[in-house]
Amino acid sequence: MIPLSVPFIKGKAWNYVKDCLDTGWVSSVGSYVKRFEEAIAQEGGRPYAVACVNGTSALHTALMTAGITAGDEVIMPALTFAAPAFAVSYCGAYPVFMDVEKQYWQIDVNKLESFLRNHCDYRRRQLYNRTTKRPVKAVIAVHLLGHPADMMPIMALARKYNLVVIEDAAESIGASYKGRKVGGIGHIGCFSFNGNKIMTAGGGGMMVTDNKSWAKRAKYLTTQSKDDELEYIHHEVGYNYRLCNIQAALGLSQLEQLGGFIAAKKRISMRYARGLKDIQGLTLPQLAPWADAYTWLYTVLIDNKIFSRNSRQLLTYLEQQGIQTRPLWRPLHLLKPYQKCLTYQVSVAVDLYQRALSLPSSVNLSPKDQCRVIDAIQKGLR
Ligand SMILES: *Cc1c(COP(=O)(O)O)cnc(C)c1O
C-alpha cells in the first residue's frame, strides 16, 4: 500500500529521544520543550512560542489568549479540517464560514471584505454581525495544503475593523507569504506536529506570537493556570495542554530536517505536475504569485463531465491498486454541529469538496512508487 502521508523519522530523533529516556526528563518539564519552542519561534520569525499537546489545543489557547469568549463570532474558511471550528466551539463562540477562492483554494478575501462591509456594523471599535447581533472578534486564516492564504488584505481588514488574526499554519509550516513565514504574519500563529503533517512530534502543536503578555497568558492557561505552585492556587480554570519532553525531542529533530522535507515535497509536486499535466479535465494545484509554497498533500480536481469516474470512484479504483488517496474535507457548514452556523456565499468550497482528491505525498515517497500512482491515475481516468 502506498500511503497518503506518513512520518519520515531521520536525523537526531533517536539521540534526542534516548536522551530524554536516559535522563528521566520524559514529561512536561525538560530542556527539549524549551529548545523546541525557541526553534519554532525562530522558524516563524517570532519572539515567543508556547508548546501545546496538539494543533487543536494550540488554536484553542490562541483564541482564549486573544480574548474570544462565549457568544463571540470568529470568521474562518468553510473548507478546512474541522479543528479550528472545534477550537471556536470550545470557547462557546460561533464560527462564521467564508468561501474559498477558485484558484488557490484559500479563504476568499473579496468575499471576506464584502461580508465585513455589507453585513456587519462597526461601533466604538467593535464589529457586530448585523444578522446575529453578536460581536465579530477574530479571523482564523487557514493556510491550506502547504499554501499561504492572501494575508495582506486580511491584515488590512483586521486593522480597519479591529479584528484579531490567528493563522492556522498546521498544514503549511515553512511556507512563505511575500517572503514572510506563515505563522509569523497575523497576531498569533498556530502549528501542528501531528503524524500526517510535514514534520511530526508524534503529536503536538505550538502557538507563536510577538505579544509578550499573550505568550505569558498562553503558558499560564496551558499549564493548569497555576497561581501558586506550592499552595495549589488557581484563580482560573486551567488546561493540561503542555507538550511533553519526549514529543519535543522528536519534534526538534524533525524541525532540523524541515528544509529537506520541503525540498522533497517540492520534488514530489514537480513529478506529479509532469506526469499529470496532459490529462484534459484534471486540474492541478497552482502557486499564487505571493507564495513560496509546497504541496503538503498534492491535490487534484477531477471534472465529472469528462471522465467516467468521479473523484470518489477514482479513490476506490486507486485503493484497489494499493494506493491511498483522500477527498478534501466536507465543508464545515455541512457538518452536524455547524449546520446552524452562518455562512457567507459558500459555493467554491462545496465544488472543490466534490471534485478534489489528495494523492500520496509522503516526504519519503520514492520516484518508483510515484510513477505507479501516476500510471494508475492515467489508467483509472481513461
Ligand atoms: C491538522 C490540522 C489541525 C489540528 O492539528 P492537530 O495537531 O491534529 O490537533 C488544525 N488545523 C488544520 C488546518 C489542520 O490540518
Structure commentary:
It is a single chain. Helix content is 36%, strand content 17%. It is α/β, with parallel strands linked by helices and 382 residues long. The strands form three sheets. Strands 1, 2, 3, 4, 5, 6, 7, 10, 11 and 15 form a ten-stranded mixed beta sheet that branches. A three-stranded antiparallel beta sheet has the order 9-8-13, with no helix packed on it. A three-stranded antiparallel beta sheet has the order 12-14-16. Strand 6 (135-142), helix 6 (151-161) and strand 7 (164-168) form a beta-alpha-beta unit. Helix 5 packs parallel to helix 6 and helix 9 runs parallel beside helix 12. It is globular. It starts with 12 loop residues before the first helix and ends with a helix. The structure holds pyridoxal-5'-phosphate (PLP).
Overall shape: it is globular
Bound molecules: pyridoxal-5'-phosphate
Question: N-to-C SSE series?
Answer: HHEHEHEHEEEHEEEEEHHHEEEHEHEH
Largest sheet: 10 strands, mixed
DSSP strand (E) fraction? 15-25%
The percentage helix is 25-40%
> In terms of structural class, how would the helical and strand content be classed?
alpha/beta
How many β-strand runs?
Answer: 16
Question: How large is the radius of gyration?
Answer: 21 Å
The average pLDDT value, as a whole number, equals: 97
Distance between the termini: 22 Å
Number of helices: 12
Runs in which pLDDT lies below 50 for 5 or more consecutive residues are: none
